[in-house]
Design a protein that fits this description.
Layout lengths: L8 H31 L5 E8 L9 E11 L5 E8 L2 E11 L3 E13 L2 E5 L5 E2 L2 E2 L8 E4 L2 E2 L5 E8 L4 E7 L3
Antiparallel strand pairs: 1-2, 2-5, 3-4, 3-11, 4-9, 5-6, 5-7, 6-10, 7-8, 11-12
Length: 175
Amino acid sequence: MAQRRGISNVVATIILIAVAIALAVAVAVWVFGLAGSASKTATLQIQAVGLNGTASLTSTTGTAYLSLLVSNPSSAAIGINGFTLGSLSCVFSSPISVPAGTQGELLVIALKGSNGYFTGVDISNSYIGNTQLSSISGLTATCSGEQTAQVGVQYSGYITTVSGQTYPFTVTATS
């Protein structure tokens, strides 16, 4: 019979410890890599403030104002590409930029309409913070659909960013 020799206990222990350390490092890199990329994702925070002036649209042509507080706690600017309010969907011709670190910036979108419906956006009466949207070179809004405009009704909507993310809000129409 031939004598078989195995690895000594010391060498086997050293190999097992080295493999365990290598696996722990690999798992740590993977976990912290995922956490790092998640913290860099740009996100908006939207809080509905109000939908005022809805009564002006009941029988005549008028303007109502959708007011939202927008915050961007991320480290990169985010572009708002459009919004939806019920059945009314509007897309801006160029993004409305929300700078990095913005906290509670007031976004007011002037909704035009008549005969009890929201039908579009009046860019000249819309603004973010102290900046009128009409001062953004060539900015227009293309809208599709229409939404009934009734005082006391709660409307759901969402803001859409350039990256395609949507941020929902709910607002109650007032006169």
